[in-house]
Specification:
The protein is of the alpha+beta class.
Length: about 200
């Protein structure tokens, strides 16, 4: 993003999902990032957050990192704003080859929070690597979404004792003593890209 104009210069898949512009340019269809895209320009979903966004972008232009806390309550979200050119050093552009070899000092990087604990591809590969059955993989996915055993049992039309048995089996196969340990293990899994090409769109 250009911190002076707030115009998007480059967005990866997560960025496009968080700032998906309506076809008629009237707003955004994005997923709860607290920001919206209007005619290519990033704005806050709530008008009262625009001043905070502007101040954070001004700080980025000065080479200072910022943290946007947008919205409130269950609709709140957080976005990190990182200057690509620091006040005393140059950002390592080799890791961002698609940005080019020369980046204007006004450019900043927006980093959005994960929309879910673990993407479906990663979850499926983890379940397969640990030898989980299909049913156990489904239970694991729902546990990681915050569902309780009773809710999972209801969703699958089985007894709660069946779900608890599956959870014990999952913990044994993943070498986790508790459900909390299991969720923590899943939360730090590296994301698995579904596509390796065509993801960078200007």
């Amino acid at each position: 993003i250009d911190s002076e104009s707030a115009m998007v210069q480059f967005a990866n898949v997560l960025g496009h999902a968080a700032l998906l512009e309506c076809p008629d340019g009237s707003g955004t269809l994005g997923r709860g990032s607290g920001l919206r895209l209007l005619h290519g320009r990033v704005m806050a979903q709530r008008p009262c957050d625009n001043d905070t966004l502007r101040r954070t972008l001004d700080r980025a232009r000065a080479g200072l990192r910022g943290f946007l806390c947008l919205g409130e309550g269950t609709q709140s979200s957080a976005v990190a704003v990182l200057p690509l050119i620091g006040p005393r050093h140059t950002f390592d552009l080799h890791a961002y080859g698609t940005l080019g070899s020369a980046v204007p000092p006004s450019y900043a990087l927006l980093v959005f929070a994960k929309q879910q604990l673990c993407d479906d591809s990663t979850m499926a590969l983890f379940a397969r690597e640990r030898g989980l059955t299909s049913a156990e993989g489904q239970v694991l996915a729902q546990v990681c979404k915050g569902l309780r055993p009773a809710q999972i049992a209801h969703n699958h039309g089985v007894r709660i004792s069946t779900v608890r048995t599956q959870l014990r089996s999952i913990r044994m196969k993943t070498c986790c003593e508790t459900i909390r340990d299991l969720v923590q293990q899943v939360s730090v899994l590296p994301p698995m890209a579904r596509q390796l090409s065509g993801q960078a769109r200007g």
